[in-house]
Amino acid sequence: MNTFSRWVGDRLILVLGLLVLLYMFVPIFVVILMSFNAPGSRNSYTFNGFTLDNWLNLCEPYQLCSSLRTSIEIGLLATLVATLLGTLMAFAMVRHRFRGRSSANLFVFLPMATPEIVMGSSLLALFVNAGFAGALGFWTIFVAHVLFCLSFVVVTVKARLSGLDPRLEQAAADLYANEWQTFWRVSFPLVFPGILAAALLSFSLSFDDFIITNLNAGQEVTFPMFVWGANQRGIPPQINVVGTVMFTVALLVVLLGEMGSRRRAAR
Question: How many Cα atoms within 13 Å fall on the side-chain side of residue 187?
Answer without folding.
Answer: 21
